[in-house]
Protein: 4-diphosphocytidyl-2-C-methyl-D-erythritol kinase
Organism: Propionibacterium freudenreichii subsp. shermanii
Amino acid sequence: MSETEFPASGARGLGAVDLRVRVRVPAKVNLALRVAARGDDGYHQLATVFQAVALFDELTAERRRDDAITVTTRGLHAHRVDDDPTNLAVRAAVALRHHFGTADLGVHLSIDKSIPVAGGMAGGSADAAASLLACSVLWDLDTTPDDLVQLAADIGSDVPFELVGGTALGRGRGGDVMPALARGNYHWVLALSDRGLSTPSVYACFDEQVDAGKVVPLRPDDPDACTALLDALASGDAARVAPLLGNDLQEAACQLRPELREVLAAGTAAGALAGIVSGSGPTCAFLCASQPDAYLVQTVLRSLEQVDETLCVTSPAPGAQLVVS
């Protein structure tokens, strides 16, 4: 893993006086997601291009007088988030505390969500990344950015990218991230659903499709899986990027939620350069040539009964950042 920089550096010392730390963290879209057949260990090797989009959760970490780690959630889909030890933000704080041998430290995490839950945009992973950064500052731990990225990889495959942000190539299970060059800004319309999709169920469906010969999986040692897309991103030309967007999990997501095919067709017919299912879905992301084009596509999509909410966002966006109030 290459040396990583993000706004945790230079934060050492703030926690000695601050009783509250706020962090903002973005959603992500997988511009390309290539998936290998399930390995003997039950996991899938990936080759993916992540890009952070300007849709953010905000996490506030407040020091507790005891050693408890607690969480409350509000905002979009908050009723679908478990405020208990299974919450990824809590797991991240526990992992950080364990790594540094500081079991006496406590924290209350308040999460204000704008990223869809179970939407394929790394909402839980984003909150875990925010928790790592916020708690490292609040507890005044002697961390480096690379320390946090290494811890993040043990929590979830998308968590390291949520710390790094921008654009990155992910390999392995997705947690081995390398920042990539993307010139310019990109305009997206997101079509959201109030009904999430279980990531394990999407992967299980993908496995069935591979076994049936309906999908050709990634060859894990393929060095060129995302090369053409990375070249297009370096050009800054959305029209070059659009035909290279792809998701090996898209057909599985559409098999489980057939209405996603109608949403994808409607968005491209309305003028989007391309539309893809983001990650394991069900969020659909539409790349547009300009902001006015994005507004036109949004107008069409918001009229569909299969779509519960639409958003216009831009990318790339920074990873987890401290919020100075």
